[in-house]
Amino acid sequence: MKIFIIGPGGVGKSTCGKILATLLDYNFIDLDTEFCDRIENIGVYINKYGYEKYCYANSKLFYEIIRCHSENFVFPLSSGFLVHEGMAELTAKHQQTIQKKGISILLLPSADITESTQIVVARQLTRGFGLNADKEKLKFQQRYKRYNNLGNIKIYSHQNPIDIANQMKKRILPFI
């Protein structure tokens, strides 16, 4: 079983995903980490080649990982992987692959867009990426509805990561 964790940056996909993988005794593969390890730091890559080329390189890496790993794993995806602006064909392909290859868990801090925006933007600004608060707020709000339409399982929580991972485990067990 492949478990894809989806959602915006700063919601805890990687942190909770590592814990979930341990709880399930699954392997853990993080798409952002793999990109940085195999290709280049994401921010540097985007600055050199642009966001669109990053999206295609990230997509290529995703399919390479899927092809090379048949074992059970928890796989947090990049924040925009399923909601790239202006790349509907690519995101539709990703969504179909995820549906076919496993199950997805959408992670958001709250079902309320205002509360989610505040939490996500605050977290993103503390991550040291040099992000602009207004741009992050706008990007999150533009993507929020698209995120909400995704995920076989939806988890709305900003509890501590162990509690969230335990919620994920409880909700995923019927599918395993």
Fold and architecture overview:
The chain is α/β, with parallel strands linked by helices and 176 residues long. Helices cover 57% and strands 12% of the residues. It has eight helices and five strands. It has helices spanning 13-24, 31-38, 42-49, 51-68, 88-101, 113-125, 133-148, 161-172, and strands at 2-6, 27-28, 73-76, 102-108, 153-156. The protein has a five-stranded parallel beta sheet with strand order 2-3-1-4-5, sandwiched between helices. The longest helix has 18 residues, at 51-68. It is globular.
User: How widely separated are the two ends?
Assistant: 7 Å
Order of helices and strands: EHEHHHEHEHHEH
Shape: globular
Lateral arrangement of strands in the main beta sheet: 2-3-1-4-5
Question: Rg, please?
Answer: 15 Å
Entry summary:
The protein has eight helices and five strands.
What structural keywords apply?
57% helix; 176 residues; single chain; globular; 12% strand
Write the layout of secondary structure elements.
Elements: E1 2-6, H1 13-24, E2 27-28, H2 31-38, H3 42-49, H4 51-68, E3 73-76, H5 88-101, E4 102-108, H6 113-125, H7 133-148, E5 153-156, H8 161-172
Parallel strand pairs: 1-3, 1-4, 2-3, 4-5
Helix pairs in contact: 1-8, 3-4, 6-7
